[in-house]
Amino acid sequence: MITRLSHLFLRTLRDDPSDAEVASHKLLVRAGYVRRIAPGVYSWLPLGLRVLREVERVVREEMNAMGGQEILLPALLPREPYEASNRWTEYGAGLFRLKDRKGNDYMLGPTHEELFALTVKGEYNSYKDFPVTLYQVQTKYRDEERPRAGILRGREFVMKDSYSFDLTDEGLTASYQAHRDAYEKIFTRLGVKYVIVSATSGAMGGSASEEFLAESEIGEDTYVRCLESGYAANVEAVKTVVPEAIPFDGLPEAKVYDTANTPTIDTLVDWANGADLGRTITAADTLKNIMVKTRLPGGEWELLGIGIPGDREVDEKRLEASLEPAEFVMITETDFKNNPFLAKGYIGPKALQANGVRYLVDPRVVDGTSWITGADEDGKHVVGLVAGRDFTPDGTIEAAEVRDGDASPDGAGTLVSARGIEIGHVFQLGRKYTDVFNVDVLAENGKPVRPTMGSYGVGVSRLVAVIAEQHHDEKGLRWPAEVSPADVYLVIANKDETAREGAEGLAAQLDRAGLEVILDDRKASPGVKFKDSELIGVPLIVVVGRGWADGKVEIRDRFTGESREIDADSAIEEII
Ligand code: ATP
Ligand code: MG
Ligand code: MG
Ligand code: MG
Prior knowledge:
alpha+beta; 9-stranded mixed beta sheet; 6-stranded mixed beta sheet; 16 helices; 29% strand; elongated; binds adenosine-5'-triphosphate; binds magnesium ion; ligase; ATP-binding
């Protein structure tokens, strides 16, 4: 297609918008890609919409390739499903709520776990239907406290959200990995420099939730990275691992915790057998099972329950109730690979859940300090330290900040920190939402089985800003070819009629060759045209100018800034 600038609905601006601080925001407004309507609410003009659609195309291609099926749910949602999950309340001021004419409560969807769980419940009822991954590319609404940097943090924005439904934990792990792989492909194709960081406690080193952060100094997320091992985590997640982490060789060594106030494995086994478990526990069992214990103010330990993988009957209520006066500790060793969520369900204190501590908190409490221990999927054990005071019953952990220079939780080296912009998030949800809506299907043995879910988001509109942020110079935008609003930007910089005809001919040839062409056929000075060509940021600029009389056109590479003259006759072959 040939897009003529003489017709295109476009006004570029000479000056930066007064409300813009970051480069991508300034340039996207100046180059006529987006326009502000209200805080965090933007319109997409033709060029901006093209880039947005290109990002969507790449996302769809990779989601389809990994087996995802696209559907589209409404953004206008009734209150009830979110009431059932408690998110109508939990979401707080971030949720846009409204009423219909009859006074019924509605909301604008900020994310759609509830609706996808209900949608699957509505259609599927047999194990034969699983696994299934559904996704949508949809407008989301969040009343962000601080909308920022134009489309980077909007209150209305486009997200690709997908949801996987599996019947087994292995299945969930595979679906999660498939999304993670697809996301790597998406961000690589989009030309984004990114890191994958653990979004859960760094000490755990696992993968129940990871964020994709685009490297950027203007990012709102801070992450730490260990250059020696490649370990990387969002500092929000590592806050629970403070401050010096040391390697730990595994639970069997817990036997060495033979100090006055540290129970040994044998003691724990005794406790377990002291509780009415209906069977005898051995030391070997403790490596597979979960024990939950609390220390009462008097200093005594009380075993609250023991859980067998797959069994959800641990005395959670009792544990919660005892938290107020008690100092909380949980001990567990679980078959993590197959049951990444097992422990989460038992931990009880919101603190641990909120901070993504998945399992294994060792009962050693020495001088008011607790140890958090975990293992990554390779079985490598790591340990972090949390001050006793940091466990608070209301669920906050106010652990010390992670600093530079701190030891990496895997013991491989030191941490360095940098900033990033969250562009994607992959998350093993487990049965949280299928539990809320009793989503059960019939297993092969005729018994009901409850699907386990993953949820996965990509910030589609945010990516337009992120790409602009990572690819620009002082003159303007520089789009990677995959998302550029055109392949070639052809400037007519010669008033001569034959030059104009020559440029039209070249544009037609490029169009026939399947390239997207922007043709600057405006009656404007070459200076104005060149400035706009750089501002708009198409990767290849072709100039039909003075050289035309000698049979030459100029080719400019917007990325390298290089330009050279080539024969007009062979221009088409050179460009394609
Ligand atoms: P953030 O930490 O930036 O607030 P989030 O963790 O709240 O993001 P998720 O709920 O994980 O976001 O949503 C999935 C993706 O949607 C994010 O990774 C991000 O790329 C994008 N996103 C979230 N909020 C916004 C927003 N206000 N504007 C644009 N994109 C957003
Ligand atoms: Mg957010
Ligand atoms: Mg986030
Ligand atoms: Mg997130």
